[in-house]
């Protein structure tokens, strides 16, 4: 178990239900595509729902303590679902998760290149996306692009600090005071308090990716809430 907020039994049941929802929706969507075509509005809505289910499963697998190799194997399934419907207006946070976990899990370059194409095709210019994806290019391009979504704006100074100690101090403050509170407008905020089984976990994957890229000493963050310590140290 990585998340202390729910039991092993909870996550086992949650994953079973989410996987069943994926199977059910994919069966229905394939039938509708055969009848009405892939551009049908109902198809597009259903595909967005399926992508959300895939993200839920990925997040819950990590929360439940699944081996990191299992997450790496599941990653392409999330990506393949995401490619069908993603746009930055409704999926900024999900894309940030995909980039960050891809970096930490050291997924094949072809998968990160596919993500890079998705971001470029969308047209969004975002400092955080460009910094993270730029690590896989021969030349890291400097950018004046903004960070579009709070609370991630705080990460600009983490990345651009002149010393590693300062970067770590700012990141520790971000995790303690900014990250969770800054997501109070998302659908998953406070879901651990719900009577329904809708909680999949709270993880600041972007923090882990930044630590890995900047090669910060994160030993002091090991037991910090929301910080994916073992994923940072994959391989």
UniProtKB/TrEMBL annotation:
<dbReference type="InterPro" id="IPR015025">
    <property type="entry name" value="PoNi_C"/>
</dbReference>
<dbReference type="Pfam" id="PF08928">
    <property type="entry name" value="PoNi_N"/>
</dbReference>
<dbReference type="InterPro" id="IPR028983">
    <property type="entry name" value="PA2201-like_C"/>
</dbReference>
<dbReference type="Pfam" id="PF08929">
    <property type="entry name" value="PoNi_C"/>
</dbReference>
<feature type="domain" description="PoNi N-terminal">
    <location>
        <begin position="2"/>
        <end position="115"/>
    </location>
</feature>
<feature type="domain" description="PoNi C-terminal">
    <location>
        <begin position="125"/>
        <end position="231"/>
    </location>
</feature>
<dbReference type="InterPro" id="IPR015024">
    <property type="entry name" value="PoNi_N"/>
</dbReference>
<protein>
    <recommendedName>
        <fullName>PoNi C-terminal domain-containing protein</fullName>
    </recommendedName>
</protein>
